[in-house]
């Protein structure tokens, strides 16, 4: 009986010990599963910062932007935005920032001359460029927008809105300017600088506008500062304009012109987009008289033109007679 009892206790002890062993083994296995490597530390604070950042990068990656200054338009970060505007217009470049805290917002322009050709435009609410067309125009609550007035073709560049973090956070905007072409042209389509008319004739000027939608716009004609489109006092003035999707063709006609019709004529679609030529009205004067005695050919009248033609015909006739005249033999006389 004692033998059987001891045997039973041994079996129980063995079973208990085995179970405990298995439990300890299991506990060891579970504990080892959650053991993490100790973060690496060095004597260099910046490296410690990098290691700490790296060790938590995967764990908190989707929360990083919530705890510091960041752009609201996340899709614009790292991907330049293209923006096309019309020359002469006023525009805003938006830059919405959340949780700016103690950081500063700056706008810079990266010129086409090279990557390092940067122009500082604004810092905070202050404008640092000498060009008065540029201005920081903050829009509550968080839009640090850059305003550009009367945009020109030269304003084409890459613009960057920067937050003064380390390294700086940046969004980029590629600005493209669609500059219309406005020209007063001759019958061949070449631009004119000045034009001459005789008194009592009809003045006719042609203006072409390109690279701008003109479906709802107007082409203005001016003599000096006077708008001719709606002139009802002078009489004999006609303005005909063909508007197109990409421009316009406009013609100004003035009947029975006189000396008072000379001067500057301007074709315009805005205060900043125009083209001006000088019109001279002649009453038999010569170019030399017109230019204060400068040597220049006279303006041929109808009589002068006929006289030139008759002289040319007579010269041609004489040349033909000489060519067809009989040749006389020459005789040498010895004395």
Automatic annotation (TrEMBL):
GO BP, sorted A to Z: synapse organization
Region (Disordered): 1-31
Gene3D superfamilies attached to this UniProt entry: Immunoglobulins
Biased composition (Low complexity): 8-24
Any single Gene Ontology cellular-component annotation: neuron projection membrane
Residue span(s) of domain Ig-like: 69-172, 180-278
InterPro entries: Ig-like_dom (IPR007110), Ig-like_dom_sf (IPR036179), Ig-like_fold (IPR013783), Ig_sub (IPR003599), Ig_sub2 (IPR003598), Ig_V-set (IPR013106), Zig-8 (IPR037448)
SUPFAM superfamilies noted in UniProt: Immunoglobulin
Protein name stated in the entry: Cell adhesion molecule 3
Organism of provenance: Bactrocera latifrons (Malaysian fruit fly)
Gene: Cadm3_1
